[in-house]
């Protein structure tokens, strides 16, 4: 496919990218690589790029996807030290990639986009931004918005913990100014973040109380160190790197079968993984029946994300570590009491209690056509087209948006596919001189029907721990298949001045919304 670089009159669209994490960096690079477009700006509220990997600096933070997969397909890193790398290496990779592709100059750091509003008269998005360092604010007009603001940014802090009077922080806001040495520490949550924290800090603290009311399935991590020979081969024998990455891509993608309920192959797959988790518990806690019982999940395998860890169970055996499976009932001052009556006085409480994605879209943040507050209208049930396009939001592309969470693969794969979809759409706009593209409601309905049908095939319908339409229950390969073609007929389009959109696509002209002006 040949890519146009400009509209017919030689101008190029102004593009605003929100966020400089994996999604935003990918979008910026692909605009340059695929369309040679440089008329974009990236708004990033933090002081540097990296997103999740800039924000999460808790002890033990690391990626659980093979590093060669959890990096862009177009920007190989031959020097990863391990199969699963620590946060510092992912962050270093993202910074280096942003430098290599010269996108730092385009990033406005410490600049938060506080609202986005579609201006029908100008056929542009008006982004209101605020600089956190100076308080300076202003508006920025963009023809196209690529929203890569992430889903795991806002800490979920359950209300009951407000009563705790010692030092307390969330895993994603680690307080490095407090030394844990010799302190009585509590960690709430034993999912991915909690398990990594507990396994790393136990030796430093006087006592560690772990509040894990719902254990997760844990499999061995079996990390591999890539020594200089590996790194040499990756760098100099090109096909080895490509083969290795491709192997992980398809191997990891095949694990989607774990979540499907009917096929005998899936049941077999699940039985094997179930056995591995059982054996892992048994081998790591052979003489601790009580502890083994406490870390055994009471729900079906794979109805939550499986966590990889070689260190968690051995850590729980340490004399200064106690796992509380019964729920917390009272928090008073620095004391936490659980249902069984156990009371612990703590100096520090760490909340590894997850994230609240809906806070990414506060009321008034995202106002689309006709003054529609898009995310507020969604309520608990977002409606998108493959997590990427949204009715009433012309020329707007969500990257890793709602509806397409994936639990089995590296998110980089999904993010790259969504970015390429946006690139295809922008390219189409340039080639056909299109001013606006807005996904049709029918296309969204059809996609949501697919999600509803899909979930019936998964084990999530037996024990629903997740929002029905939150996830894409297919393989990433199938997602690629669905997203590889733009399908322009699924969009309402309007041509740029003097261009009749109807003649371009043979589609009906969209109904016009009332003229919407921005103050
Ligand atoms: C601890 C942890 C470990 C993880 N490990 C894995 C893993 O191993 N494998 C995996 O696939 N996924 C993992 N994830 C999920 C991870 O979030 C994604 O893989 C990926 O980093 C998402 O990238 P993103 O760019 O879409 O979002 P983010 O990384 O969240 O980046 C979004 C960026 O947008 C900025 N931003 C947000 N709102 C605004 C605004 N209004 N104005 C300006 N800037 C804004 C943020 O500051 C941030 O820099 C992990 C998540 C966590 C929390
Ligand atoms: N790749 C990695 O290695 C890695 C590392 C960290 C995070 N992540 C990703 O980041 C996301 C978030 O992970 P996370 O571990 O931070 O959060 P999470 O998966 O949402 O888990 C939150 C934990 O906190 C517990 N919790 C929540 N509210 C509680 C309360 N009021 N009282 C007691 N316990 C409470 C939960 O228990 P209940 O289940 O009982 O509610 C759960 O154990 C996930 O998508 C994960 O995959 C990945």
Automatic annotation (TrEMBL):
User: Pfam families in the record, alphabetically?
Assistant: FMO-like
* Keyword field contains Oxidoreductase: yes
Q: Which InterPro entries match?
A: FAD-bind_Monooxygenase_sf, FAD/NAD-bd_sf, Flavin_mOase-like
Single GO molecular function: NADP binding
State the source organism's domain of life. Eukaryota
Q: Which UniProt keywords apply?
A: FAD, Flavoprotein, Oxidoreductase
Q: What family does the entry list?
A: Belongs to the FAD-binding monooxygenase family.
Record's protein name: Flavin-containing monooxygenase
Which source organism?
Modicella reniformis
């Amino acid at each position: 496919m040949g890519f146009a670089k400009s509209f017919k009159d030689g101008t190029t669209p102004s593009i605003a990218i929100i966020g400089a994490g994996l999604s935003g960096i990918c979008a910026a690079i692909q605009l340059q690589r695929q369309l040679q477009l440089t008329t974009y700006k990236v708004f990033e509220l933090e002081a540097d790029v990296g997103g999740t990997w800039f924000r999460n600096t808790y002890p033990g933070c690391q990626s659980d996807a093979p590093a060669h997969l959890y990096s862009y397909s177009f920007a190989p890193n031959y020097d990863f030290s391990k199969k699963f790398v620590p946060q510092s290496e992912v962050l270093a990779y993202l910074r280096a990639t942003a430098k290599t592709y010269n996108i730092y100059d385009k990033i406005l750091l410490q600049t938060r986009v506080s609202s986005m509003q579609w201006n029908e008269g100008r056929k542009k998005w008006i982004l209101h931004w605020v600089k956190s360092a100076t308080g300076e604010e202003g508006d920025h007009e963009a023809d196209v918005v690529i929203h890569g603001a992430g889903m795991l940014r806002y800490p979920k802090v359950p209300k009951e913990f407000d009563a705790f009077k010692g030092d307390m922080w969330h895993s994603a806001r680690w307080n490095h100014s407090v030394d844990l040495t010799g302190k009585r520490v509590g960690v709430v949550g034993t999912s991915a973040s909690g398990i990594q924290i507990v396994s790393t800090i136990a030796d430093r603290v006087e006592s560690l109380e772990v509040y894990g009311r719902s254990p997760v399935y844990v499999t061995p991590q079996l990390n591999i160190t890539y020594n200089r020979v590996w790194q040499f081969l990756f760098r100099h024998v090109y096909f080895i790197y490509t083969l290795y990455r491709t192997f992980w891509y398809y191997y990891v993608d095949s694990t989607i079968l774990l979540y499907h309920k009917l096929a005998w192959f899936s049941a077999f797959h699940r039985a094997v993984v179930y056995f591995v988790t059982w054996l892992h518990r048994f081998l790591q806690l052979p003489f601790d029946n009580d502890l083994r019982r406490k870390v055994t999940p009471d729900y079906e395998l794979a109805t939550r994300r499986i966590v990889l860890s070689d260190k968690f169970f051995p850590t729980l055996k340490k004399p200064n570590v106690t796992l509380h499976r019964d729920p917390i009932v009272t928090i008073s001052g620095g004391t936490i009491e659980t249902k069984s009556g156990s009371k612990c006085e703590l100096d520090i409480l760490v909340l590894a209690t997850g994230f609240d994605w809906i806070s990414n879209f506060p009321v008034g943040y995202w106002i689309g056509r006709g003054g529609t507050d898009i995310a507020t209208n969604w309520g608990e049930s977002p409606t998108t087209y493959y997590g990427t396009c949204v009715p009433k939001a012309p020329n707007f592309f969500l990257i890793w948006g709602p509806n397409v969470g994936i639990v089995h693969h590296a998110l980089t794969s999904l993010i790259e596919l969504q970015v390429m979809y946006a690139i295809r759409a922008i390219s189409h706009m340039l080639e056909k001189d299109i001013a606006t593209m807005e996904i049709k409601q029918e296309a969204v309905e059809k996609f949501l029907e697919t999600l509803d049908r899909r979930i019936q095939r998964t084990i999530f319908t037996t024990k629903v721990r997740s929002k029905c339409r939150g996830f894409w229950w297919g393989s990433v390969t199938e997602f690629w298949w669905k997203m590889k073609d733009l399908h322009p007929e699924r969009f309402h389009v309007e041509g740029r001045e003097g261009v009749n959109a109807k003649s371009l696509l043979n589609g009906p002209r969209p109904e016009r919304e009332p003229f919407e002006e921005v103050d």
